[in-house]
Amino acid sequence: MSDVRKVQVGEVQLAYRVWGEEDAPPAVLLHCLGEDGEDWRGVVGRLAGTHRVYAPDQRGHGRSDWPGAYGFERWRDDAIGFLEALGLERVALIGHSLGAVAALLLAAERPELVDRLVLEEVPVPLPAEPPQEVPEQPAGPQPFDWHAKAAVVAERNAPDPVWWDAPAKVTAPTLVIGGGESSHIPQAHLADLAERIPDARLVTVEGAGHLVHEERPGEFLAAVTSFLAP
């Protein structure tokens, strides 16, 4: 895999990896809770054939700083700061789960930064039913800060209602990817989200579950590369 680099973004230092030719159009990949930039290893080779691919470790994960303060808006702001620190404009922004929420909020807040948006298995801002509980932290070292888990659970149980305003503010063409009925994300919610984004379409990879790019990398890449093609 690519060597890990670091960049200062506000109060945190973010680790990231880069693949692809320097002059290729940029693509930024935002991972889910509990993972890091290495999570994209199964699909990054193909994406790097057409794009300059950046995969950061989000705050509280991997080799980035673990400041103890987390939330979807903080992850959004970190992603904005990451693009600005590296001088990236009009990126293809691809997010999975937690990373997809950050990507959606970024595309709504700073639409000029996003050329294409891919949201894989994105939780929609509806209260979790039944409410989630933070599981006990496993023994031993973890690859991410458990406080990030607590922050996600709290915001999933009581999401900011203004987030439902975000989809209408997205100007980039958007691909929403669902994993079918085996996912814990209600697929009807993804369909509703796609309808709220002005220029969006939904692709469902039945049987993939929540980890579409891991369980069905070929189908994930077929949908994404077709969507990103000029």
Automatic annotation (TrEMBL):
GO molecular function: hydrolase activity
Residues annotated as domain AB hydrolase-1: 28-222
Keywords for this protein: Hydrolase
Keyword Ion transport: no
One Pfam family from the record: Abhydrolase_6
InterPro entries noted in UniProt: AB_hydrolase_1 (IPR000073), AB_hydrolase_fold (IPR029058), Carboxylesterase_BioH (IPR050228)
Entry superkingdom: Bacteria
SUPFAM superfamilies assigned to the protein according to its UniProt record, in alphabetical order: alpha/beta-Hydrolases
Name of this protein: Alpha/beta hydrolase
Organism: Streptomyces mooreae
